[in-house]
Design a protein that fits this description.
The chain is mainly β. The protein is built from two helices and 27 strands.
């Protein structure tokens, strides 16, 4: 029988952008029964990655919609929120590292204290945050039974239909905020090689490096309406953003290849200011698993994005004559640049769009190219 060994764990969970960030430190210790999990997140880093021309991306410069108390009620906080509880999966692999998992030891902690035992040999460890619900309904599902070697997370199809122009029929629910860290071949050896004695904790401590990375990415959407003059009076309150993975693997952070459209809420704000002009803006916030096949922290700039899907944003707007119209915007170029989340902006000039005349149902569908193309194409 293998000797059981109590271990002290300290995890400093630091998020990672596309450039190296402070690491997640794991301290293993011998003979104490206390394990400590400490989370420290610098949340602004998530959107501050470099673009392909080497400049630092600052989403605040592109965001004109703002964020007030009503937005927080509808969408939540504009950025990531600090996790307060975590799930831990420990996989003993015996005397050999990097072998398939045959047993898992699950743990859940509230706060930052965790107690447990380790046998001598090699271990793999997965850490991810527990989901905190706002409305009492969790969108994320965790598949831990298909294989013990990894955990796959996914969302299900919603009741919301998507415009056929996007190539999708139904939208899927957006996931909640999710972060994960995975370390393999953690060695607990009898000779204590790599351990240092900590007198204050009366324990031998081994330092390892891990990185906590986002599994889900935040996108802020805004349709800036010029020369509205009261013609658009509201929005249906929902929208879709297509071409993202439906699932992700927690151990690798890689998004699945099953592309879907993601459902999210929208809101119209009047009389916003953009470069000295009074405009109306339809804004929203959503989370996705990212571009299909993308692995979190793997891409350093958008030139490395291998994206086989177009990305469309659609929403229904209501006009002052009682009609409505669904607009479909091609935002592919922006998504490929903002591959880890960020602001997606569409400029819409109402002087170039005729007022719908048919009541009841959409009068026309507008397919508008990415704003960086500098032309708007309206299909009547």
């Amino acid at each position: 029988m293998k000797t059981r060994l109590a271990a002290l764990m300290m995890l400093t969970l630091a998020l990672a952008g596309c450039t190296p960030e402070p690491k997640l430190h794991l301290f293993d210790a011998q003979p104490t029964e206390t394990q400590l999990l400490l989370a420290e997140l610098d949340l602004d880093v998530y959107w501050d990655y470099e673009t392909e021309n080497g400049t630092r991306y600052d989403w605040r410069k592109e965001w004109f919609y703002g964020w007030d108390d009503e937005d927080r009620r509808l969408f939540g906080e504009i950025g990531y929120t600090r996790p307060t509880s975590f799930s831990i999966r420990r996989y003993p692999t015996g005397d050999l590292p990097y072998t398939p998992h045959v047993r898992v030891i699950p743990s859940t902690i509230e706060g930052n204290i965790f107690q447990g035992y380790f046998t001598y040999g090699f271990w793999d460890m997965l850490v991810f945050n527990d989901i905190k619900l706002v409305d009492g309904v969790q969108s994320l599902h965790f598949d831990e039974t298909t294989t013990l070697d990894s955990i796959t997370v996914f969302t299900n199809e919603s009741m919301s239909r998507v415009r056929e122009e996007t190539g999708y029929t139904h939208a899927f629910y957006q996931p909640e905020e999710l972060f994960s860290a995975y370390e393999q071949a953690i060695e607990i050896n009898r000779s204590l090689d790599g351990f240092v004695f900590d007198e204050e904790r009366n324990a031998y401590v081994k330092k390892l490096n891990m990185v906590l990375r986002p599994v889900t990415y935040i996108y802020l959407t805004q349709v800036i309406i010029h020369h509205n003059n009261g013609r658009i009076v509201g929005v249906e309150g929902s929208g879709h953003l297509s071409g993202f993975g439906r699932s992700s693997v927690l151990n690798s952070g890689r998004a699945g290849k099953d592309a879907v459209s993601v459902y999210h809420f929208t809101r119209l704000k009047r009389n916003c200011e953009k470069a000295g002009e009074q405009v109306d803006i339809v804004g929203g916030r959503l989370l996705t698993f990212g571009i299909c096949g993308q692995r979190s922290g793997h891409l350093s700039n958008s030139r490395e994005v291998r994206d086989a899907h177009r990305h469309y944003m659609d929403l229904k707007m209501l006009f002052n004559n009682g009609t409505d119209s669904t607009f479909v915007f091609d935002v592919t170029d922006q998504v490929r640049q903002r591959y880890k989340g960020g602001v997606l902006t569409v400029e819409l000039d109402l002087d170039t769009i005729p007022l719908p005349s048919r009541s009841g149902g959409s009068a026309f569908d507008a397919v508008v190219k990415d704003f960086e193309e500098e032309t708007h194409e309206i299909e009547m």
